[in-house]
Amino acid sequence: KQWYQRRVRGFMERINPLMNFEKERERIHDDFEEKWEMGTFPGWGRDPTSAMKTGNILDLTPFDSPEELASLGLDRLKTALQALNLKCGGTLMERAQRLFSTKGRDLNDLDPSVYAKSKKSMEESVRQQEVALLEAFVYHYTELLSEQRAGTRENVERRQARTADEVDDDEDEDVVEEDDDDEDVVPYNPKNLPLGWDGKPIPYWLYKLHGLNLYFNCEICGNFKYRGPKAFQRHFAEWRHAHGMRCLNIPNTAHFANVTLIEDARALWEKIRAEKNKEKFQKEYEEEFEDSHGNVVSRKVFNDLKRQGLL
Question: Which of 177, 226, 243, 280 has the most CB within a 10 Å radius?
Fold first, then answer.
């Protein structure tokens, strides 16, 4: 346990030298004690003896005999025995005698048979609490080092996906970097190319292939400029474009793909609404009536004939 904490603390001091480790350790310990007492620590059930610690300790000074204790009743004697971690079963008189036997005596001098848990079980409980405390430190340190762990995993996955030629190139680069004493030199980048994962400009052919020399403006996104056609096409499904469409009270559907101007979006939305209105059912012209002679006419013609008294 001490070796693990010393190892982790040494690593965290290197990556975060301004952290107050003693204060952080005390906070973890206090939080663990609170959860352990309540039985809510992840992976560990409630300790059966935790309920016994909630009982009220009874002052035996005013009582001179077990009979006087028996007058308190079964429930009060039970809570008093639980508070002392003693067995709380039996009849009323047995409980009173068991509790009265502790008057003026040290609990360590009592017969082990009167305890609710044996000494061996208590030692096991202490050992489990120590293991749970170590887990609490592990959980907290894992959260603090989540960014470093994610970066390490990503680096390992990237290295495992390399080809043999890339491995040889990286080895050659490592040799060159070892010979270079100045590690803070700004990379030579006259064409202002984007930087890759290694902090160096990407190849110019890759820059042209992805169209990163092209900028696309979107007025709906607040005149935000997107670099490259891939990022431009992807932004129509992202939050910034969807927020701009909501501000215009226009649904962000597939009809508005590649529409970047506010005027064009509103004109298209009006056209779509007009087409939908044409498809709606119109009572005046599409509802049909039949007169007494069996002639089928529209609602408008039927009302006109009815007003003229021709029906």
Answer: 226
